[in-house]
């Protein structure tokens, strides 16, 4: 239990007296001396396995695979797929991998947890103001105001769960007379029944049968169990003065929680001020250079305001609206952080990239399905439709001090500046750089994206997945853009044949790096690695074999055989 300093003497004077006083610790007749009557009920919203969900949102691990987060060499959080395979919290990594050989592991990152939880809290605050973050993945709200607005506790919780569902997240909720009891209520829910409401005054009875292990204080819990106190009800039956004298302040707080009188006060956070900026043009502008010139002062103000708060924008969203209400919206990344010139460039590139009907149609908001293809077509620097509004929205920010140059490596500032100048002159897609992709073929394991942009959504997760049939490391240095036709022969000078299960009638003996090239002796080989893809799809299924060979010219090749023909996929230099 992450205890906060108890509120020992300041009652919540805004809560109406319900006429039902707190009768104190059940079973002892001892009056309640720590929490006044009428304490507001707490609404807990809990996102199960949040650290794992945050890693999936950050695309550092794939979804729906056995996965675990590690802390100090132990499993801290594991997915439902991993739990089904026998992985549990607290076991060592090797034991977890022995139980689940396909387990995907990643180290825990509290900063990532907080960063990914911020948009979730913002969405909750839109429907239930007054959110306090207890920790990433767990927040509490005073139920009184929400009930007054929505009419009932069930309706208030329904609004919170709907907000989470719109983000594609699973959430659970609990309501009780204290923060601690509401959290235990939320943890008592299931996927099919995500809400648990403890009736007013029933929190002590609800908590009575719960094990003391939920208190989360290892030393205190160990001592209580050795003394025979196994449940919260047993702890609540003790005298508060005896608990304080024997267990100190930590024990006294645990006793209050067990009695349903968690003295922690709900302190809603103050939402950060909005950082987005809106530029409105009246009348609308239809030239890219005019728009870029008009956007620059706002871009400078946008960057400077973040800088004064010690923040830097790393992902920017630009929304452009024309005079007919059609909207183009796109997110842009940056390898370091955005400056004012970078923001202006992104606006210019977005206007230029909407120059074809197809591009405009893809970028049109779903609510506007009339696809203004002709309206977005450009003639030189002129747009076919006047632009009336541009919004600049920071999708992701980070502390400014964290965005400095790496100790080893990193992008040279002069190189970055030169490449961006080329992009400004030639267009956003004129300068590309490779990022790791995912797939069994080498051509699929590297993607080209515009300089300064992050890989497409899902690329990192795809690259981290297991790919049965992929070639083991080390990978070849030279990958041909298109596989080269070659000849691979057996000792009888016939084309090498590979059986369905990878069996060979004869080993590879001769190799020709081209259809008409002189053949070379194969002095070493490894394989075959069988490639069996989408066998259930008659049109897209693929059945191929791969070999590594070393020829008599001391050149190593990666070969791909398919349909009785052989191709050179790459060469080891």
From TrEMBL:
Keywords, ordered alphabetically: DNA damage
Region of interest (Disordered), residue spans: 1-37, 354-373
Membrane spanning residue stretches: none
GO term, biological process aspect, one: DNA repair
Ranges of compositional bias, category Low complexity: 1-36
All copies of domain UmuC, residue ranges: 66-212
Pfam family, one: IMS
Keyword Ribosomal protein: no
Stored CDD domains: PolY_like (cd03468)
Protein family according to the UniProt entry: Belongs to the DNA polymerase type-Y family.
Biological role stated in the UniProt entry: Poorly processive, error-prone DNA polymerase involved in untargeted mutagenesis. Copies undamaged DNA at stalled replication forks, which arise in vivo from mismatched or misaligned primer ends. These misaligned primers can be extended by PolIV. Exhibits no 3'-5' exonuclease (proofreading) activity. May be involved in translesional synthesis, in conjunction with the beta clamp from PolIII.
Protein name: Protein ImuB
Upper lineage: Bacteria, Bacillati, Actinomycetota, Actinomycetes, Micrococcales
């Amino acid at each position: 239990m992450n205890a906060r300093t108890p509120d020992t003497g300041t009652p919540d004077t805004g809560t109406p007296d319900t006429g039902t006083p707190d009768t104190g610790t059940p079973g002892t007749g001892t009056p309640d001396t720590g929490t006044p009557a009428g304490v507001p009920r707490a609404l807990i919203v809990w996102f199960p396995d949040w650290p794992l969900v945050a890693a999936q949102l950050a695309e550092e691990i794939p979804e729906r695979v056995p996965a675990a987060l590690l802390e100090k060499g132990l499993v801290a959080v594991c997915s439902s797929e991993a739990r089904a395979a026998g992985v549990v919290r607290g076991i060592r990594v090797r034991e977890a991998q022995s139980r689940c050989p396909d387990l995907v592991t990643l180290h825990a990152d509290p900063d990532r947890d907080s960063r990914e939880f911020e948009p979730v809290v913002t969405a909750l605050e839109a429907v239930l103001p007054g959110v306090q973050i207890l920790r990433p993945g767990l927040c509490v709200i005073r139920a009184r105001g929400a009930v007054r607005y929505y009419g009932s506790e069930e309706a208030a919780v329904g609004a919170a769960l709907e907000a989470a569902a719109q983000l594609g997240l699973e959430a659970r909720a609990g309501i009780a007379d204290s923060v601690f009891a509401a959290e235990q209520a939320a943890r008592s829910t299931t996927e099919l029944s995500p809400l648990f409401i403890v009736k007013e005054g029933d929190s002590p009875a609800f908590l009575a049968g719960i094990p003391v292990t939920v208190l989360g204080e290892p030393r205190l819990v160990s001592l209580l169990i050795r003394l025979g106190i196994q449940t919260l009800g047993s702890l609540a039956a003790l005298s508060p003065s005896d608990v304080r004298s024997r267990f100190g302040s930590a024990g006294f707080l645990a006793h209050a929680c067990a009695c349903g009188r968690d003295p922690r006060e709900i302190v809603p956070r103050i939402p950060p001020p909005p950082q987005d900026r809106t530029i409105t043009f009246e009348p609308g502008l239809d030239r890219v250079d005019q728009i870029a010139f008009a956007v620059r002062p706002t871009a400078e103000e946008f960057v400077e305001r973040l800088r004064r708060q010690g923040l830097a924008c790393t992902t920017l969203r630009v929304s452009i609206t024309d005079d007919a209400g059609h909207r183009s919206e796109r997110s842009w990344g940056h390898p370091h952080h955005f400056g004012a010139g970078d923001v202006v460039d992104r606006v210019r590139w977005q206007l230029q990239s909407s120059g074809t009907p197809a591009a405009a149609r893809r970028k049109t908001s779903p609510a506007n399905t009339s696809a203004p293809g002709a309206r977005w077509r450009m003639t030189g620097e002129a747009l076919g439709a006047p632009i009336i509004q541009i919004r600049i929205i920071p999708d992701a920010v980070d502390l400014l001090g964290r965005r400095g140059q790496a100790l080893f490596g990193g992008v040279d500032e002069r190189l970055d500046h030169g490449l961006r100048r080329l992009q400004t002159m030639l267009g956003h897609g004129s300068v590309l750089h490779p990022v790791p992709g995912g797939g069994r073929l080498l051509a699929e394991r590297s993607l080209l994206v515009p300089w300064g942009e992050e890989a497409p959504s899902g690329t990192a997760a795809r690259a981290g997945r297991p790919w049965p049939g992929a070639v083991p490391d080390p990978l070849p240095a030279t990958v041909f853009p298109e596989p080269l036709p070659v000849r691979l022969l057996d000792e009888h000078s016939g084309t090498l044949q590979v059986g369905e299960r990878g069996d060979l009638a004869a080993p590879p003996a001769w190799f020709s790096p081209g259809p008409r090239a002189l053949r070379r002796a194969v002095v070493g080989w490894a394989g075959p690695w069988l490639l069996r893809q989408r066998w259930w799809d008659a049109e897209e299924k693929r059945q191929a074999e791969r070999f590594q060979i070393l020829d008599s010219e001391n050149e190593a090749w990666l070969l791909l055989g398919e349909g009785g023909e052989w191709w050179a996929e790459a060469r080891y230099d």
